[in-house]
Write a structure and sequence with these properties.
The protein is mostly helical. About 70% of the residues lie in helices and about 0% in strands. It has a single domain, classed as Growth Hormone, Chain: A, CATH 1.20.1250.20. Helix 1 (about 5-25) runs antiparallel to helix 5, helix 1 packs parallel to helix 7 (about 130-160) and helix 6 (about 115-125) crosses helix 7 (about 130-160). Keywords: Membrane, Transmembrane, Transmembrane helix.
């Protein structure tokens, strides 16, 4: 039995949510502690950069409903993943506090393009009746991302100072921003000859017996003398 392609899209959206929330939402809290302890930068400055990260992402979220139909969900999601990865390089390699404010809008745009709006735009076309269940499964990736990436960030920052330039990170970035978006986020149900929820729908046709009955009634009505009443029948008699 073949699995409905929409459930594969849900699994891909789950992975998207893991990275979107694990990096964009849970990462800044770890960045705050690391930049404060390792580089001695003021908490107020780093907190302001983190706030700028979320404010920039909110501005991008407001533009996503117009960007998705124009450029496609896959292209916007891929661009967001690339922006997220490049913005993380800016956070990790910033030599002065003011450079954080240059990296924050980039990571904010990546967080917005791979967050909740993207997950909904990816999953919604594939489901109608079972859309709540599909979205619930996809959004569970947010919780998984927080549980997975928070300790992972701490381990990477503590043990590998050059982790943003490592081949491991580059491979993960290419895998999530390229094949995942192209393979699962680009196709639409109509292009694959499928219907939402995987249902098989047949075009509506009037039954043959009903068509014949309607034609017979129309012929009888047209040939009947009552179909076109004469003026003598409709007017009163002149003798009254």
């Amino acid at each position: 039995m073949r699995v409905f392609f929409g459930w594969k899209v849900v699994a891909a959206a789950f992975v998207l949510a893991v990275f979107g929330w694990g990096i964009g939402s849970c990462g800044p809290a770890v960045f705050l502690h690391a930049l404060r302890t390792e580089r001695g930068w003021p908490v107020a400055v780093v907190s302001a950069a983190i706030a700028w990260h979320f404010v920039s992402g909110t501005a991008v979220i407001a533009r996503l409903p117009a960007a998705h139909p124009r450029f496609g969900v896959a292209a916007v999601t891929r661009a967001g993943a690339m922006a997220r990865a490049r913005g993380l390089l800016g956070w990790a390699l910033a030599a002065e506090p003011w450079r954080l404010f240059l990296a924050a809008p980039v990571t904010g745009a990546g967080w917005a393009a791979t967050g909740g709006v993207a997950v909904n735009a990816v999953v919604a076309p594939w489901f109608e009746r079972r859309r709540p269940a599909a979205l619930a499964l996809a959004y569970n990736g947010a919780s998984a991302g927080g549980a997975l990436f928070t300790p992972l960030w701490a381990a990477l920052i503590a043990g590998h100072a050059s982790w943003p330039r490592s081949p491991w990170w580059m491979r993960w970035r290419r895998w999530c921003s390229g094949p995942l978006a192209g393979r699962f986020f680009r196709p639409q149900p109509a292009a694959l000859g499928l219907h939402p929820d995987g249902e098989r729908r047949r075009p509506f046709r009037v039954p043959r017996a009903r068509r014949r009955g309607a034609a017979r009634r129309f012929a009888m009505c047209a040939s009947s003398r009552w179909a076109w009443p004469s003026p003598s029948r409709s007017s009163p008699s002149s003798g009254w």
